[in-house]
Amino acid sequence: MDTRLTAEQDEIRRTLRELLHKRCGVEELRAAVDSPAGYDPALWSALADRLGLPGLALPEACGGVGCSATELALACEETGRALAPSPLVATSVLAAPLILALGTEAQRAGLLPHLAAGTRTATLAVPGPALATALALTGGNGGQWAGGGRAGGVQARHTTAGWRLYGQVDQVLDGHSAGLLLVAAHTGGYARSRTLLFLVAGDAEGVVRTRQTALDATRPQGRVQLRDVPAELLGTADTDVLPALTALGDTAAAVLAAEAVGAADRALERTVEYVGQREQFGRAIGSFQAVKHRLADVYVAVQSARSAAYYAAWATTQGERVGGLALAQALQALRCAAGEAIQLHGGIGFTWEHEAHLYFKRAAGDELLFGPVHRLRDRAAETARLFTRGEVAV
């Protein structure tokens, strides 16, 4: 593994950081999350036009740039630094790869170029609390995570006119604004129940969407109600979506780990700046040994998480699945960095208006959606077979 970044990768990071520095400061960020969509459409268009960011990891034949998950992870590290609210995770990390993997030729040709160009957004409509399970990050995804029947969720039935969906999905990333919904639904009745994925236009008749209050406002979520809505099956009736979701989960975890590392690095950077300026007893508080030790621990955690995230992103191209473990380490580093930022900023850091709370909410919100950390690690240990019954791995 060559750990050096290529010239193209460095250019992606540099250009994206410059653009976000100009267009996504704290004031712009707060204004964007308070808007109906939860993000700035003008910034999203700029990311698409200047960098091709929505289609960065899609093949050129589908209108994308043709890069790998590594480049997408590096880009998300920069969006994580700025906590930039955008449809990037929902569209490019969750929905588009599934359409690429499972869709028919017509579906890929009709949908992916628009997603790659940023002219249309998409999301994976899975109940928020079950998202980590559906992606096989915290356990096997063969259970009833999609709901159905008495468990709620979404049911699908086939009629002479095609597929119809009915039900409700809560806590869907960008569920209130995405132009395309990729809905996980149960079909086949109780005895022969199986989960399939369906394509639903966000503005289709019978779709009722409401933005929900989320802990992390930079990741807007919505409630999606489907009232006998016409839908198109993704792929064919023989398509097995569970292996595709498992593969997607590992890649998504690697990308999300890089994003969390970017956020943690920026939180640490801002804290180091502050303790170098804030004075107590006639000297900067950053000169006190106790403060140095605390920040040194955070630095080690962030750098270790960065190494794990980079390796996980590279490993996705080699068929190795370590994304969940990298995500666990990155989320822990982000929580540590954000917590220390709040404490070392003193009284001002404990006010809700301070920027440090945005990073702390990102850490807590991501753990609710994709974790928690101990379950991510437990699943990684289970997958690697570190522990077996009656034996302890040394």
From TrEMBL:
Belongs to the acyl-CoA dehydrogenase family. It comes from Streptomyces griseochromogenes. Coiled coil: none annotated. This is Acyl-CoA dehydrogenase. InterPro entries: Acyl-CoA_Oxase/DH_mid-dom_sf (IPR046373), AcylCo_DH-like_C (IPR036250), AcylCo_DH/oxidase_C (IPR009075), AcylCoA_DH/ox_N (IPR013786), AcylCoA_DH/ox_N_sf (IPR037069), AcylCoA_DH/oxidase_NM_dom_sf (IPR009100). The lineage of its organism: Bacteria, Bacillati, Actinomycetota, Actinomycetes, Kitasatosporales. Residues 254-382 form the Acyl-CoA dehydrogenase/oxidase C-terminal domain. It comes from the Bacteria. GO terms for molecular function: acyl-CoA dehydrogenase activity; flavin adenine dinucleotide binding. Gene3D superfamilies: Acyl-CoA dehydrogenase/oxidase, N-terminal domain, Butyryl-CoA Dehydrogenase, subunit A, domain 2, Butyryl-CoA Dehydrogenase, subunit A, domain 3.
